[in-house]
Amino acid sequence: MNPRPDTDPHDEPVIAVRGLTKSYGGRRVVDHLDLEVHAGEVVGLIGANGAGKTTSVEILQGLRRQDSGEARVLGLDPHRDADRLRQLVGSQLQSSGLPDRLRVGEAVRLFAGPRATDADRLLEQFGLAHRRRYPFAGMSGGERQRLFLVLALLNRPRLVVLDELTQGLDPAARRDVWEAVAQLRDGGTTVLLVTHELAEAAALCERVVAMGDGRVLDQGTPHELVARHGGGVVVAFTEQARSDAERAAALQQLNGLPGVTGVTREGDQLVVRGGRAVIAHVGAWLLTTGRPVPPDLRVHVPSLEDALLTLLDTPTTVKDAA
Length: 322
Ligand SMILES: Nc1ncnc2c1ncn2[C@@H]1O[C@H](COP(=O)(O)OP(=O)(O)OP(=O)(O)O)[C@@H](O)[C@H]1O
Hints:
It is a peripheral membrane protein. Its main location: membrane. This protein has 322 residues and is α/β, with parallel strands linked by helices. Helix content is 34%, strand content 25%. The chain folds into two domains: 15-228, P-loop containing nucleotide triphosphate hydrolases (Rossmann fold, 3-Layer(aba) Sandwich), CATH 3.40.50; 233-301, Alpha-Beta Plaits, CATH 3.30.70.100.
């Protein structure tokens, strides 16, 4: 990742949330949430449906009010200072829409405030310069999302909030939008990204906050979360041993390989678990012992999805609103 020149560790956080709580009809959906985002960070908020991500982000944007706890955005109160914050925060909300007949150029003029940057440059940057005269209805899903990004960035925001940016996009359009967010990240913009796409969080975010039941379950770099909760690497294959003795010897040898934390037999398969090095060592073992590469050789490297599933599986206590 590129250095973030405007990041000063002594700066007040761009987002500072302490003990944030919100209930709907007696059910607590945000439960003493603590969250900090610093200048220049790209932070991903992930979690199951109903974890409270959107509610939290809407409180930060002054669209809802918390029951208790403190939220500061750029040192301001999102509810009391909503007007000032609107100038400073660029938002792309979950169900963004524009009138069908509104053209790209018109949308940009409509949304431009006193702090607006060069819209032509932004349209160019996000590959929409040739679409200026297009109506919203005529744009593809990817183009629409890129237009929302342009509109979110138009007034030179100090924070950009993106909620389900790539929902419903095909893989190519998603890639385009990811690239656009990577440009923001590399330009030093502070981004809070709410997403279900864990590959998106892993690709774009330097820090990921996993939420469940309105609380932070854990946070860290994608790599840290995978290391803590993803479970180890698994290498599985059918061992073609000719005798019980040969099978037992194979098991013992595999158990002794560097980084191996366990070898189990599952049906005909041997399942070797451990750190990443296990992939290389099992491969080397197969070759040096003169074995052919097993046709069913399978390697599973844990992902952010594995980590989140483990985190969400961790039992939480049932709670009622106070
Ligand atoms: N206005 C509302 N009135 C009542 N319940 C609500 C309201 N808004 C949200 N909820 C409920 O609060 C819970 C948290 O919703 P929220 O949208 O914040 O979660 P989320 O993590 O963003 O979920 P998703 O990933 O599905 O968008 C959900 O159970 C939702 O149904």
